[in-house]
Amino acid sequence: AFLDLSSVHQVTGTWMASTTLPCTYVPTEDFTQQTLSWSVKQGSSTSTIFRRDSSGDHILLSKFRGRVSVPKHNPGDASLLIQNLEMPDSGHYTCQIIWRSRDNSLITREVTTIVKVVKVAATKPIIRAAEPGLTLPAGASTSLSCEAGGSPPISYRWFRRGPAGTAELLSSGAELAWPSLRPSDSGTYFCEAHNR
């Protein structure tokens, strides 16, 4: 109960998607978190991925750079978010936390989660339809958002239909926003969703 880490035994993640490995505890004033580290065991070798200490956050394994993070302003939450999962990411992941007590003794706890990365059958993006038309006053703000289901990662592009069936690319994001509408913004807009 006391300073015990909560986790799950196994996580199945989808290739190219994101997954979170939970590692949480109930903070107490009597103990201060000194270090938090995540390591991975693959085969017979163990490597430290992430370490948080008094000098900040450090990603020690280059293949995880830019892909892993731990919540910063959420005391007691040491969960590891892994983005863009790769097949070789499968392995045994250990969350280890060391606390310092008021009498300066150190307490260490760790918990291990097995990660399996799986490929799912690739599916084409299917765009969820939005309302067919919008009538808005000039000066109003609005946005159109495009949401598609299918195999990640999905990229989006917004177009405006021009004269003679031409299309003008407006944005390469899922959302198209207008802070202040002008009459010239009237027209037909469409979204394209793309994956591999």
Helices and strands in order:
Elements: E1 10-14, E2 19-21, E3 31-42, E4 45-53, E5 56-59, E6 68-69, E7 80-82, E8 91-101, E9 106-118, E10 126-127, E11 142-145, E12 148-149, E13 155-161, E14 167-171, E15 175-178, E16 189-194
Parallel strand pairs: 1-9
Antiparallel strand pairs: 2-7, 3-4, 3-8, 4-5, 6-7, 8-9, 10-12, 11-15, 13-14, 13-16
InterPro entries: Ig-like_dom, Ig-like_dom_sf, Ig-like_fold, Ig_sub, Ig_V-set, VSIG4
Organism: Nesospiza acunhae
GO molecular function: complement component C3b binding
Fold and architecture overview:
The chain is mainly beta. It has 2 domains: 5-118, Immunoglobulin-like (Sandwich); 126-195, Immunoglobulin-like (Sandwich), CATH 2.60.40.10. 0% of the residues lie in helices and 47% in strands. It contains no helices and 16 strands. The protein has strands spanning 10-14, 19-21, 31-42, 45-53, 56-59, 68-69, 80-82, 91-101, 106-118, 126-127, 142-145, 148-149, 155-161, 167-171, 175-178, 189-194. Strands 1-9-8-3-4-5 form a 6-stranded mixed beta sheet, with no helix packed on it. It has a 3-stranded antiparallel beta sheet with strand order 2-7-6, with no helix packed on it. A 3-stranded antiparallel beta sheet has the order 14-13-16, with no helix packed on it. A hairpin with a 5-residue loop joins strand 13 (155-161) and strand 14 (167-171). The protein is elongated, with a radius of gyration of 23 Å. The protein starts with 9 loop residues before the first strand and ends with a strand. The mean pLDDT is 91.
